[in-house]
Write a structure and sequence with these properties.
Blueprint: E1 2-6, H1 14-22, E2 26-30, E3 48-51, H2 59-67, E4 72-75, H3 85-88, E5 93-95, H4 102-117, H5 120-128, E6 146-150, H6 154-165, E7 169-173, H7 186-192, E8 195-198, H8 212-217, E9 222-226, H9 235-243, E10 247-252, H10 274-281, E11 285-287, H11 296-315, E12 323-324
Parallel strand pairs: 1-2, 1-3, 3-4, 4-5, 6-7, 6-8, 8-9, 9-10, 10-11
Antiparallel strand pairs: 5-12
The chain binds 1,4-dihydronicotinamide adenine dinucleotide.
């Protein structure tokens, strides 16, 4: 039996992980707490930990896990910016779920876009109060508008297909261009887009890529969508851009300081995060709490792939095709050849 400490458990996690775990001799210990330096000790006696986007897997946590015998960190998500893979290298193997449903995220981005530009969120609240006024609900056609997509990987490409369906002109920016996409320099994308959607990972170079200087270059009235990672946007700069009327709308599924706020019911609490409060109070900002991935299809895929990752690590001589490898340059492409195995 492989024992796995499962941090930051939510009610929606359990059914799929229990199902796949029980059928594959994996015992998940479901913990509500997030992983951090104080809670790493709870993994004592476990072979692996299973973590999510807001668990903190820094150097100190990795050392504590390593010293208590943990040899595998199984991320049940695609992004790994919360794991210090450099420090983990040589001690603990790190696996992730590279794709579980890129459709879920791309479709959520499209849902946010439509909600925002057609004021569906306002109309929904109004008609529930039997207010049938159309005042202030004027939107704009997406057809013929320009959307700029930053990051054209799995999710970005599906979002591009959806936007083509709306009859939008699509331009894109990526460090590694793919065939069949109209790429432009980032400056051009910022200057020409009516809608900008972020689909690149959070790295040292992409942190705050949407800052005051970037917003300055954008069209007046631009709609910004972020379903990727909160820190891609400097939220102070975003708020300034909204207050100055430069930004027409913001659709945020992620927020830089979301870790202690999102995924929880805070409705009975005073909100300490002034910036988030200000953003939410704006009539042209829509916030969802990191829910873009949350479809039944995605949850099943996440559980199945995570369990397969754990099994292949323990039953396949440590080999796992979804290993993140610091040494391999392209972190998601460990050579996975026994002879060339990195550690
Ligand atoms: P992917 O790895 O398939 O694509 C990422 C793309 O970004 C790649 O084409 C890459 O070349 C590009 N890129 C990297 N650095 C860049 C830079 N500096 N400038 C422009 N492009 C750059 O990843 P995928 O699956 O499309 O996911 C994208 C992001 O979506 C993830 O990194 C993750 O943060 C986020 N995500 C959010 C979810 C949510 O529930 N809100 C769920 C899943 C992923």
């Amino acid at each position: 039996m492989i024992r796995v400490a499962f941090y930051d458990t939510k009610a929606y996690d359990k059914p799929s992980f229990e199902y796949y775990g029980e059928n594959n001799a994996i015992q998940f210990h479901f913990l509500e707490t997030k992983l951090n330096e104080d809670t790493a000790a709870l993994a004592e006696g476990c072979d692996a930990v299973c973590v999510f986007v807001n668990d903190c897997v820094n150097a100190a946590v990795i050392d504590k896990l390593y010293n208590s015998g943990v040899r595998l960190i199984a991320l049940r998500c695609a992004g790994y910016n919360n794991v210090d893979v450099r420090v983990a290298f040589g001690k603990i193997h790190v696996v992730h779920v590279p794709a579980y449903s890129p459709y879920a995220v791309a479709e959520h981005a499209a849902a946010l876009l439509l909600t925002s530009v057609r004021r569906i969120h306002k109309a929904y609240n109004r008609t529930r109060e039997f207010n049938f006024s159309l005042s202030g609900l004027t939107g704009f056609d997406l057809h013929g508008k320009t959307v700029g997509v930053i990051g054209t990987g799995k999710i970005g490409r599906i979002f591009i297909d959806i936007c083509h369906g709306f009859g939008m002109r699509v331009i894109a920016y990526d460090l590694y261009p793919a065939d069949g996409i109209d790429y432009v320099p980032l400056e051009t994308l910022l200057a020409e887009s009516d809608v900008i959607s972020l689909h690149c990972p959070l790295t040292d170079t992409t942190k705050h890529m949407i800052d005051n200087a970037a917003i300055e270059k954008m069209k007046k009235g631009v709609v910004i969508i972020n379903t990727s990672r909160g820190a891609l946007i400097d939220a102070e700069a975003l708020l300034d851009g909204i207050k100055s009327r430069k930004i027409g709308a913001a659709c945020l599924d992620v927020y830089e300081e979301e870790a202690d706020i999102f995924f929880e019911d805070r409705s009975g609490h005073i909100m300490d995060d002034e910036l988030l409060s200000r953003l939410i109070s704006m009539p042209n900002v829509i916030v969802t709490s990191h829910q873009a991935f949350l479809t039944e299809d995605a949850l099943n895929n996440i559980a199945e792939t995570t369990v397969n990752n754990i099994l292949s690590y323990y039953n396949n001589d440590g080999m796992c095709e979804n290993e993140l490898c610091y040494r391999c340059g392209n972190i998601e492409r460990c050579k996975n050849d026994r002879k060339q195995r990195c550690f």
